[in-house]
């Protein structure tokens, strides 16, 4: 049986481990990510949510700018907006393979920065998906990077019933 989110928050509130929130509705996934944000050491920073179904172009541009270490295209950059806070990317399984590769690279570097203390990006990454990540369209590199700390809302609800 899956651990309830409250127990996972207590265990991981001081880490920058990438959070994968599975199942439920979008607002439930957001609520879990917000709870992790408010309980973490980045709680004083911003919480930024991106619906990847509708905002892939902006996310892709921001990831390319981070990779190239250049200024982003004009317009709000969701990654820099979440600097020293939490970035929730909901419906990330619907991103193109190219954007997923960039996101996998970014996720690897957020974790390396938190663990190694330098060279990473100061953003806690939360990824939301509506369905089972074992059958979703994640490329293997992205799945390996985001499936570190998992909250399965459907399992939590089944355990509560």
Commentary on this structure:
- Helix content is 45%, strand content 16%.
- The protein has seven helices and five strands.
- The chain has helices at 5-12, 26-38, 56-68, 78-81, 97-116, 140-146, 153-160; strands spanning 19-22, 47-51, 85-90, 123-129, 149-152.
- The protein has a five-stranded parallel beta sheet, sandwiched between helices.
- Helix 3 (56-68) packs across helix 5 and helix 5 runs parallel beside helix 6.
- The longest helix has 20 residues, at 97-116.
- It is globular and about 40 Å long.
- The two termini are 12 Å apart.
- Residues 113-117 have low confidence and may be disordered.
* Overall 3D shape: globular
Radius of gyration: 15 Å
Contiguous helical run count: 7
H-E order: HEHEHHEHEHEH
Low-confidence stretches: 113-117
- Determine the strand fraction and express it as a percent band: 15-25%
Structural class, from helix and strand content?
alpha/beta
Number of strands: 5
Report the sheet with the most strands, covering strand number, pairing sense and barrel closure.
5 strands, parallel
Distance between the termini: 12 Å
Counting structural domains, the number is: 1
CATH topology name, in short, is Rossmann fold
Main sheet strand line-up: 2-3-4-1-5
- Helix content percent band: 40-55%
